[in-house]
Amino acid sequence: MKHKQIYFRLVMLLLLVLLSIGLFMTYQTYGNWQFALTLRGKKLLAFVIVGLLTSFSTISFQTITQSHFLTPSILGFDSLYVLVQTTLFFYFGQTPTHPMIMFGLNVGLMVIFSVILFGFLLRKESQDLFLLLMIGMVLGTFFRSVSTFLQVLMDPNEYDKLQGKLFASFSNVDVSLLYMVIPIVIGIILLFWIVSPTLDVFHLGTCQAINLGINVQRFRWFILFLISLSVALSTALIGPITFLGFIVANITYQILPVYKHRYLFVFSALLSILMLVLGQFLVEHIFHMNTTLSVVIEFSGGVYFIWKLLSERGKTLQ
Amino acid sequence: MKKSIPIISLVLLAVLSLFIGVQSIPIQDIFQLSETQSLVLWTTRVPRTISLVIAGATISVSGLIMQHLTQNKFVSPTTAGTMDSARLGMLVAMLFFPSGTILVKSLVAFIFAFLGTVLFIQLIRVLPGKNQLMVPLVGVMFGNIVGSIVTFFAYQYQLIQNMTSWLQGSFSTISKGNYELIYVTVPVLIICYLYAYQFTIVGMGEEFSISVGMNYKLVHLIGLLLISVASSVVLVTIGGLPFLGVIIPNIVSLMLGDYMKDTLWMTAVSGSIFLVIADILSRVIYPPYELPVSLIVGALGSFIFVILLVKGAKK
Question: Which ranges does the record mark as transmembrane (chain A) (predicted)?
Answer without folding.
Answer: 6-24, 44-64, 70-91, 103-123, 129-154, 175-195, 221-251, 263-283
